[in-house]
Design brief:
The complex is a heterodimer of chains A (about 350) and B (about 325). Chain A is mostly helical and about 350 residues long. Chain A contains 14 helices and no strands. The longest helix of chain A has about 40 residues. Chain B contains ten helices and ten strands. Classes of the chains: A mainly alpha (about 350), B alpha/beta (about 325).
Chain lengths: ~350, ~325
């Protein structure tokens, strides 16, 4: 039995590594297929902005960059891989002396905080409301919330973001959008102080709110349909016949079983926490990894892009493995290494 | 039939379902008395209303179902009479399992897959104010009685048990709070014949030791004959014939009961042809006049089409 557990873990890890490698390789070549390259973009910028001649600009850029666009792509790939196995993500092509790893570490916490918080809020709220909708099916809450969920589920997140900025911020002046960009207000000392945490929440409010609105409809509708099918199960009728109080019935019998199918979805969402918010962060000027990715793509900063894509791939793979474990914890039927066995 | 005192009295109960096509008269004017220690078998084919009656008794009818007439009286051990249909939600919750428990068909789906058997026992006990240690002791002794390995089953998840084991767990759970009435809705249909035998055996033994009354719903005549004291045959929402098991099975008076008996295989009579009843049950949205069985009955007379003729003894088959 121990052998089996070991081999399962081993298989999962190997599978994960292969997935990460495949994604990494794919993005490596894909981003080089994009029109333009970092040097050319910089050269164009110098020509446009400073009126240099083409040759002058090319020389200037060559001294700045340690990137040679004429090096064969496959050689670049081998170099990249050999650096990577030494856990070296290289340096940014555009802001030359900054290591990519340092950039990621600087921007990642903002994204984890804002998108993670949003996911937590959207998931718990969506699941609770979905459960209530199914439990009192056909009631006022169900009817109102089904319409609400369907409507907001159909609106893309960037539209919600733009509406918040343009209508609530600029036209109605309900939200002081001008004060809310960035991750925190300059001059407030970072630390575990109430002031700083409140400031963080204030600045994260718009992205979090947008993300919650854009995703909560999906959670509500899936939880509702899952709960409805759970309510039809025999064990719910049996539990009711046993005279269990409603509260116990709702949590341990209906809720827990209805949530099982949502775990896969949650895992996918957790995986996309890191990279799933590029447009929203850009719109709200929030200093997260997603905004950084958009900037890097604009400048064709290959190394930064590779680094961020790698982080995204790793987080998707890891969260899927975690979901497997979590699922096993919630549903004893798929628990691994159970040695009780059936008859 | 131990002492003849009535534990559960059902008088003139009717239940309807509202459907898109119209109102279905699922149960019409059914009455029966259940005595202490008695086992009453309700037999009949699918859709005859036998499950609907018991769901009505314990207040678990689906939203579309409604009890239109009737009265159900339950007599507690201390002699107090309870009007079951008049209980409010909380009183009903307490009535269930304490006084009247139920074993459902389909043992495979009757247990919450994410909870251990022990949690299920504790949940049930806590809902009715029984202490946890007492519940555990009682459950273990009941598991022993239904021939399960008590501790192993107590700490198992449902998926770790076979169908027969789960059915016995349900049977034991039904007796946890010492109810006077246990309703069993086809408890042996989802299991194989050997498991069925062992469950029947266990049930008979438990009944002797713990002295409770049973309403046994079945379409399996052999099982009903073996376990019941009294048999009530149901057809199209009515009890058409009722009596002690020996009388109903050996001298059936209603043509439908006779048809049911002839449709069941018997060891004693050898290689006789099985006969099925022609036709199908009537539409209960628009039930026929007179005897509801007259279209399928081989003894039909003109009188049957307008009134219900009285039952007469037939020769034994």
């Amino acid at each position: 039995m121990r052998k089996l557990i070991r081999s399962y873990t081993f298989r999962t890890v190997v599978q994960g590594l292969i997935t990460i490698w495949a994604v990494m390789t794919f993005t490596f070549f894909l981003i080089r297929l994009m029109p333009g390259n970092p040097a050319q973009i910089k050269i164009d910028e110098y020509v446009d902005r400073y009126g240099m001649s083409e040759d002058q600009a090319r020389q200037q850029v060559a001294t700045l960059f340690n990137y040679d666009p004429d090096q064969p792509v496959f050689e670049q790939y081998v170099d990249y891989l050999s650096d990577l196995v030494r856990f070296d993500l290289g340096r940014s092509l555009t802001s030359t002396e900054t290591p990519v790893a340092e950039q990621i570490l600087r921007f990642l916490p903002w994204t984890l905080f804002s998108v993670g918080l949003a996911l937590l809020v959207a998931f718990s709220l969506g699941v609770l409301v979905g459960l209530a909708m199914a439990y009192w099916r056909g009631g006022l809450l169900d009817n109102v919330m089904t319409v609400f969920a369907s409507v907001i589920y159909a609106i893309p997140d960037y539209i919600i973001a733009l509406l918040l900025i343009m209508v609530a911020g600029v036209q109605l002046k309900l939200i002081p959008v001008g004060e809310l960009y960035g991750g925190s207000t300059q001059g407030i000392e970072p630390g575990f102080t109430v002031e700083y945490i409140l400031d963080l929440l204030k600045h994260a409010f718009l992205p979090v709110f947008t993300y919650v609105l854009a995703t909560i409809g999906g959670w509500m509708l899936t939880m509702k349909s899952s709960t409805i099918s759970t309510l039809g199960e025999d064990y719910i009728t049996v539990a009711r016949a046993r005279g269990l109080p409603e509260r116990r019935l709702l949590t341990a019998y209906v809720g827990r079983n209805a949530m099982l199918p949502l775990m896969t979805r949650l895992a996918i969402s957790i995986g996309f926490v890191v990279g799933g918010s590029a447009i929203i962060e850009t719109l709200f000027l929030y200093p997260g990894l997603g905004r950084n990715l958009v900037l890097a793509i604009g400048l064709r900063d290959y190394t930064t892009m590779q680094g961020i894509f790698l982080v995204i791939a790793i987080s998707v793979v890891v969260s899927n493995i975690l979901a497997d474990l979590l699922y096993g914890w919630l549903d004893p039927r798929v628990r691994l290494g159970g040695d009780k066995g059936t008859e | 039939m131990a002492d003849g005192s009535v534990v559960l009295s059902v008088e003139d109960i009717s239940i309807t379902y509202t459907t898109q096509r119209g109102i279905v008269q699922a149960v019409s004017n059914v009455s029966f008395d259940l005595h202490a220690g008695e086992t009453l078998a309700l037999i009949g084919e699918s859709g005859c209303g036998k499950s609907t009656i018991v769901l009505g008794l314990i207040g678990l009818l689906p939203k579309t179902g409604k009890i239109t007439t009737g009265k159900v009286t339950y007599r507690r051990r201390d002699g107090r009479l309870i009007d079951v249909l008049g209980l409010n939600k909380e009183q009903m919750r307490q009535f269930l399992w304490n006084e009247c428990s139920m074993v459902f068909q389909g043992a495979l789906n009757s247990l919450n897959p994410v909870l251990k058997i022990s949690s299920m026992i504790y949940d049930t006990a806590r809902a009715h104010g029984m202490r946890a240690d007492e519940a555990k002791k009682r459950a273990l002794s009941l598991f022993e009685k239904v021939r399960l390995d008590p501790l192993r089953v107590f700490n198992s998840y449902p998926h770790e048990l076979s169908g027969g084991m789960r059915q016995r767990v349900l049977l034991a759970t039904a007796l946890l709070l010492r109810p006077q009435v246990v309703i069993m809705d086809e408890p042996t249909t989802a299991v194989d014949i050997l498991t069925q035998r062992s469950i029947i055996k266990v049930l008979k033994q438990l009944r002797e030791e713990l002295n409770f009354s049973v309403i046994f719903i079945s379409h399996d005549l052999a099982v009903a004959a073996e376990i019941a004291d009294t048999v009530a045959t149901m057809y199209a929402g009515e009890i058409i014939e009722k009596g002690p098991v020996s009388e109903v099975f050996y001298r059936p008076r209603h043509a439908y009961t006779l048809g049911l008996l002839e449709a069941a295989p018997r060891l004693s009579t050898g290689a006789e042809e099985l006969m099925s009843i022609p036709g199908s049950p009537p539409d209960l949205i628009d039930p026929p006049k007179g005897c509801k069985f007259h279209m399928r009955c081989r003894f039909v007379t003109d009188e049957c089409k307008t009134t219900k003729p009285p039952l007469q003894a037939s020769s034994p088959t």
